[in-house]
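Here is one chain, start to finish.
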Amino acid sequence: MNSIWVITKRELSSFFDSLTAYILLTVFLGLSGFFTWLYGSDIFFIGQATLQPFFSIAMWTLFFFIPALTMRMLAEEKRSGTIELLLTKSVNDWQVILGKFSACLALIAIALLLTLPYYITLSFIGPVDHGAVWTGYFGMLLMSMAYISIGLFASSITNNQIVAFLLALFVSVFFLIIFDVLAGNFTGSMGQFFNFLSISTHYESISRGVIDSKDLIYFLSISFFGLMLAETSLSKRNIVE
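Its structure:
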């Protein structure tokens, strides 16, 4: 556990030592604030004290930002050879993967914490469904876990950051868009199956204030499976070398 914490602090510090964290936080807050308060289906246009506009836009901003965040996590270390130095220390593949996963999730949590003024401001506008707000934030963390695990897997199988970014987006597109489209074009058990595979189905359910065990199992399963694939990729590479 100590090794995971050390790697987490190392990676989180590297985000802030470079421009990565500042760019992500600035763009995330700028886009979410613009679409929540000023444009289209913003809070004032809806006429309700709800953060649903924010949760809707956050689903898309995280879809792009997380692959950009994870693309360098393993791909760059493999390209530069620093992954070899890291793996020769008293850490195993799982500790490396979990440390990098925790650092990414911590940065996303910081970004979400910086949006709490939206919630505070909303409470002065009108009656707020506090349960729906907190479950919405919880849903974003769960969704972020799934995206991060997919991004780490993509980063583990290539030395090229751009390839890792595009591969993570490609896989995520299936969960966010394609399965949702397929669910609408099939009926019966096939339609239900594709509907269950869609991230938006589970995220929207949680963001409305409903926490169901099937939604938790869905996000945790994707997260675990993605991390397991990333660890397997590193293990195979170590065996080969």
